[in-house]
Design brief:
- The chain is mostly beta strands.
- It has one domain: TonB-dependent receptor, beta-barrel domain (Maltoporin, Chain A, Beta Barrel), CATH 2.40.170.
- The chain is built from five helices and 35 strands.
- The strands form six sheets. The protein has a 22-stranded antiparallel barrel.
Length: about 650
């Protein structure tokens, strides 16, 4: 089981060497890297906002939820590094795989153990994947039964998603445990009307989604989305003989109901049922084994209900959320019953508020409580409770935004922990903004680390201090930003194979810079890209952290042709060399991927689209020994009413 459950066994470290001149030359060929859009402020002035867009100027607003305060706010008022992917960009990129979207953002690297649906890790600025806090419609969806309590990105698809927000940098001040690398918020599609689409392509992959939304006014609305995806897949083991299939069906919804002026009831929920085949050890060498594959099923249930109130100068929101993840592992060789089960559940109650004080001052505050539990076939049920509170004082005017505050948490296993943070932004001149942030993060030991295999009930939380500073330019037709960052993490929990036990022994440093921007030419041609230089090392021995490329580059070209609305696009992804293991013994070669895509409207309600991924049929690995897709073609149709 330990060999199969690899979704967060990534405390390994790694090194890479890369052809820097090649990557840098490629980045210069595709113009400035991607970042933001320019919105008109209430006073008619241009506020530079931090929306990182695959295609700029598509976001419908500049309001976000992953700010340092944890409550909805304006991007222009944050000094942090924040990315936003809108539904228009999700549709433009096409497909059900969220990895193809996230890899376009600066500071992001990914790793997948085989085909679509396999265990997938997302590293933000070199942080471990389980150190990224993930929410879906406001619900924390980490798996409490996973060895390190992380979220497996192989279990979420693009169908029904309307928005993705990513905050890069430690932000436990507002969000509590897990936000060492950042916060990623996924929001359901709530565009009014009916939508449906189906796509078919390589490896007998079929994806179908449908949804609708109604909106009566700003306080009352309802949105429902559902979908089904299946694929014959590829062999999880590189070079394997038989494909490992995947299927998932999901349904999610959210709504609000106005109760009185300024007060509304809000609710959201998601159910997803997945199955992924995988190769045992040793992997099958003949296709006859495909009739009885080993496989894993995952059932995820999450939901939240609460109240929100807003009036002039005062906001208050609170609710209770539930996230339940159940996994079962099957080896048909030993019968039809599952060989191993895990159950992880988290209940989260929160209250957040905002009060506008005089003279541009603003107070943000909040309190929350978490109750976690887990059990497995071999581990009895264990629980943990965390209670926390935070407060931030901010000052905001037309040119300056400053925010600072603190947080205190109490965990019933390791005691109390304090977190601090501050960020600011300043308009230097027209079109120019400078911003900076400092944030602390922490991650409580998982229940598995405290009580499961290799348990150590004396574990303390992992901690981090993160800094970044950026200079941005935006004149409405183009945007450019350069960001430097550094994060020092300590007390990291690692497994000692000699004593077969977890200990707080790890110390890492991740530092580097990001270049991002976009330019639109004649309203029909958009060039965008993002380049990241990352030096992520284990400070105990100097080794590079595993699967973190020192150099990564994503660029795109989008052209709206004069031919009946035909849109053409191309995407380029370059990833440098890195190591797959903590000892830096297993190198992973760098690789380059090219994808082409097109779409064309047919009337007002129908759109046809298609793409070819990995056009050059590049052979590559994101995890040593695991397979990846070669040249693959897909076509689909979308309907909107």
């Amino acid at each position: 089981w330990c060999g199969r459950f690899r979704m967060d066994g990534l405390f390994m470290t790694g090194e890479l060497r890369v052809k820097f001149v090649y990557l840098l030359s490629a980045s210069l060929l595709v113009a400035t890297p991607a970042l933001a859009q320019d919105d008109q402020g209430d006073d008619g002035t241009n506020d530079i906002v931090g929306v990182i867009a695959i295609q700029p100027h598509l976001a419908t607003d500049d309001t976000i939820t992953v700010t340092s305060t944890g409550i909805e706010g304006l991007i222009a008022e944050s000094g942090q590094s924040i990315s936003v992917i809108t539904v228009d960009q999700i549709e433009a990129v096409q497909g059900s795989d969220p990895v193809r979207l996230l890899e376009r953002l600066p500071g992001v690297a990914t790793s997948r153990n085989g085909p679509l649906g396999s265990a997938t890790s997302v590293f933000v600025r070199g942080a471990n994947s389980q150190q990224l806090l993930v929410t879906i419609d406001g619900v924390r969806v980490d798996d409490q039964a996973a060895p390190s309590g992380g979220f497996d990105f192989g279990t979420v698809l693009n169908g029904g998603v309307g928005r993705i927000e990513l905050l890069r940098g430690s932000n436990s001040l507002a969000w509590g445990s897990d936000a060492i690398g950042g916060v990623l918020a996924v929001t359901s599609d709530d565009r009014p009307g009916l939508r449906a689409g189906v796509e078919y392509g390589a490896n007998n992959t079929v994806s179908a989604d449908a949804g609708f939304a109604l909106r009566r006014d700003s306080q009352t609305g309802l949105a429902l989305n559902g979908g089904y995806t299946r694929s014959d897949g590829i062999s999880a083991v590189a070079g394997g003989a038989e494909p490992d299939g995947f299927r998932q069906w999901h349904v999610n919804g959210k709504g609000s109901l106005g109760l009185t002026d300024g007060l509304k009831f809000v609710a959201a929920g998601r159910y997803a049922d997945s199955r992924i085949d995988f190769d045992g050890y040793p992997a099958p060498t003949y296709s006859v084994f495909a009739d009885t594959p080993e496989y894993q099923t995952t059932r995820q249930v999450s939901g939240r209900a609460g109240l929100e109130y807003g009036s002039d100068g005062f906001e208050l929101a609170g609710g209770v959320a539930l996230s339940d993840t159940r996994r079962a592992y099957y080896d048909p060789t030993y019968g039809t019953a599952p060989n191993f089960n895990t159950v992880g559940r988290g209940v989260h109650a929160d209250l957040k508020g905002r009060v506008d004080l005089s003279g541009g001052l603003r107070l943000d505050f909040g309190a929350d409580a978490d109750w976690a539990r887990y059990s497995t076939t071999y581990d009895p049920r264990q629980t943990a409770r965390t209670v926390g509170a935070h407060a931030l004082l901010g000052y905001h005017d037309d040119r300056v935004s400053l925010t600072a505050g603190g947080r205190v948490d109490d965990h019933d296993r390791f005691g109390s922990h304090t977190t601090l943070g501050a960020n600011g932004s300043f308009m230097l001149a027209e079109h120019w903004r400078v911003r900076a942030s400092w944030g602390q993060g922490f991650k409580a030991p998982s229940l598995s680390q405290l009580y499961g295999y290799g348990a150590n009930p004396l574990l303390q939380p992992e901690t981090s201090d993160a800094y970044d500073a950026a200079l941005e330019f935006d004149d409405g037709s183009g945007h450019f930003a350069v960001t430097v960052f550094r994060r020092d993490s300590s007390n990291l929990i690692d497994y000692d194979f000699v004593s077969s036990k977890y200990f707080n022994v790890g110390r890492t440093r991740a530092q580097g810079f990001e270049l991002e921007g976009a330019v639109t030419v004649a309203d029909s041609l958009t060039l965008a890209g993002a380049y990241t230089f990352l030096d992520a090392t284990n400070r105990a021995n100097g080794n590079q952290l595993a699967r973190r490329p020192r150099h990564s580059l994503s660029t795109s070209i989008d052209w709206k042709t004069p031919l009946a609305g035909l849109k053409l696009g191309a995407d380029f992804r370059l990833v440098g060399e890195r190591f797959d293991d903590a000892g830096n013994f297993t190198p992973l070669d760098g690789y380059g991927l090219v994808s082409l895509r097109a779409s064309v409207p047919v009337g007002d309600k129908l759109e046809l689209y298609g793409r070819v991924e990995n056009v050059t049929d590049q052979s590559y690995e994101t995890a040593a020994g695991y397979g990846s897709y070669g040249r693959s073609a897909y076509a689909g149709v979308r309907l909107k009413w």
